[in-house]
Amino acid sequence: MGAVTRVVDTHHHVWDLSVRDQEWLTGPGLAPLRRTFTLDELRAQASGVAATVLVQTVTVAEETPEFLALAEDDPLVRGVVGWTDLTAPGVSDELVRLRELPGGERLVGIRHQVQGERDPAWLLRPDVARGLAAVAEAGLAYDLVVLPHQLPACVRAAELHPGLVLVLDHLGKPPIASGSIEPWGSAVRALAALPNTVCKLSGLVTEAGPGWSAAGLRPYSDTVLEAFGPGRLMYGSDWPVCLLAASYGEVLDVARALTEDLGPQERAQVFGGTADRVYGLSGRA
């Protein structure tokens, strides 16, 4: 297996339960995550990782400024994917305000928990579309955290906003535990057919569950590798959520195993180059 000399983790979280509750942690099987997770703990587990992108966890306006301040004080965090209300009339002004805060230059993207929206076409609502246009105008990416049945709306949103880079988190959460490929496979290939889309090689072990294996993950990683290509694929740990199924080291090791057939330059794209280009991390040292 070829070595990867530089690793950028494009997807992790932190939270402090003394500052804010994480209501989503009340779900079944999530008890191991119901504690505070810090950047120092991540750093101890992510040995050899050169840079990271810190991603939003809750739809609370105060979280993004807090994350930007963390990034300002910690050179490990090169980028922040935050949250703001896309449907707000003043979303453009809010994006400007966030950029002016301490650490604001590290804001690289916006994300909303679309997976929790009942409307499968939520991304296509006129008020949401105005927000997506504002994100594009601000030169930011938009992270998609969606379920497979919401992928067709992602495809249409990518068509409607050709100037916006849409980043698919966790491969669109395919049903790995069941072993099914379709209809997820066709939907993700349709999204990849659009040039303004990118995919994160993240979240696989969590979707597979504690009994995961590299062989069981491979059909899904191979699908996105073929569809997006290494130049539009980037590694993410999804720490600490990944701890429900694997350690940080195991997640990184299996990502390396799933990309072992790539050449050195292609692997360098997956583990850093794509992130540098999409999120502009190289200019945020």
UniProtKB/TrEMBL annotation:
What PANTHER family does this protein map onto? AMIDOHYDROLASE (PTHR43569), AMIDOHYDROLASE-RELATED DOMAIN-CONTAINING PROTEIN (PTHR43569:SF2)
Q: What is this protein called?
A: Amidohydrolase family protein
All copies of the Amidohydrolase-related domain together span 8-281
Please list every transmembrane segment annotated in the UniProt record, as residue ranges.
none
Q: Which organism is it from?
A: Streptomyces melanogenes
The family classification in the record reads:
Belongs to the metallo-dependent hydrolases superfamily.
